[in-house]
């Protein structure tokens, strides 16, 4: 069995302590999320809170791919977070990751700083009367435009993956999470509009975001709105069709 543990210099003094937590993951920390694929726990060490994401154990084929061909989700999360911060994009600070190999990847963990956020993007979808909703959507669109201008194609740009912190004077900070599916590339206008599809916005939300993005990009509102709505509706139709097939 072989391990690969990488930690940010900022937290090198906690290396052995964090490795101990990971080696006893089932007994340490408090659950934040416990899904079918991944588990997230929070631990506190010396006054600092950390989130630990344990990725689902891959099957044998995937395990070999992750050892010899493709980077693990934990490693990608750490590297992508570091790159985002370097580009001035907010995400919980990447602390460390651990990979355990034995005839392929057997276990992997990603550790980041815990942030106290006020709400996530889902709140804007489920509550049309959410306070200052229009202004938040405008600033979120500016944030997404910044991603695109920096060549960041966040493939999981979905409602639960943007945490929002309210600052003073009606300003909002946006933090990306769940980072392992991302490409760094130049995006054309079609790709930019396609990137909004997973957010599941209503027509009203699309209008607000399209108006803001059109001004930032220098396109007409009509063209921006039409393309953003087209991709959003196509995605929603696809997901609803899958749900219908499962029920049948």
TrEMBL record:
Pfam families named in the record: Kdo
Gene3D superfamilies: Transferase(Phosphotransferase) domain 1 (1.10.510.10)
Matches recorded under InterPro entries: Kinase-like_dom_sf
Keywords: Kinase, Transferase
Protein name: Lipopolysaccharide kinase InaA family protein
Origin superkingdom: Bacteria
An MF annotation (GO) of this entry: kinase activity
